[in-house]
Structure formats: C-alpha cells, structure tokens
Design a protein that fits this description.
By secondary structure, the protein is mostly beta strands. It has no helices and ten strands. It has a single domain, classed as Rieske Iron-sulfur Protein. The protein binds FE2/S2 (inorganic) cluster. FE2/S2 (inorganic) cluster (FES) binds next to loops.
C-alpha cells in the first residue's frame, strides 16, 4: 500500500529546480520539470552527494560533484547503467505536493 505524505506547496519548487525533503527517514529530492514533478532518492549513487541541488537537464539531474547524470523518470544512472536510485510517486492536490511511500 502506498501512503502519500504532504511535503510542500507546489509553488515552493521553482521550474527546473529541486527540493530536498525527508519522509520516514528517506531522503527524497523532488524536481519540477516545467510543471511536471518527479521524486527520486536524494543520494547520488556515485559518492552519496545530494541530488536536489544538481542541475536539471531535460528529464535528468546532473550531480554537482562529479556530474553523473540520473534520469528523473526511472532513477537509472545514465552515466553508469550499473547504478540507479529509487523513485517515488508524486502528485499535487489542492496545490500541495504529496510523495508516496510504500508501506508494508
Ligand atoms: S557524488 Fe554524485 S557524481 Fe560523484
């Protein structure tokens, strides 16, 4: 079962920007790609830098430390396909961004 957690207002995340949130101990980065939101694990698979402060290019984020590219759509590492990050469902209800976490 997926439970959705409210994290911020939609207007809190600028276009082509990311925002860091934490839900149930999970570090999550939410990105606004010209109105469409994506939520991924906020830990770079290379050396664990945060990803919310990377550069958004298309539907990817480029890590600020060593420039690995991570797909926002499926969490796969484009620079090294052996790596990936988790993705999370995200939706907006009445202007509030909600991120879904799988509950057991
Ligand atoms: S820590 Fe992200 S590319 Fe190195």
């Amino acid at each position: 079962m997926i439970e959705f957690y409210p994290v911020c207002k939609f207007t809190d995340i600028g276009f082509a920007e990311g925002k860091a949130v934490e839900i149930e101990g999970k570090r999550i980065a939410i990105f606004n790609v010209f109105g469409k939101l994506y939520a991924i694990e906020n830990v770079c698979p290379h050396m664990s830098a945060t990803l919310h402060d990377g550069t958004v290019e298309g539907r990817s984020v480029i890590c600020r430390l060593h420039f690995w590219e991570i797909s926002l759509t499926d969490g796969k590492c484009i620079t090294d396909p052996a790596y990936c990050v988790a993705t999370f469902p995200v939706k907006v209800e009445k202007g509030i961004v909600k991120v879904g976490i799988e509950k057991s």
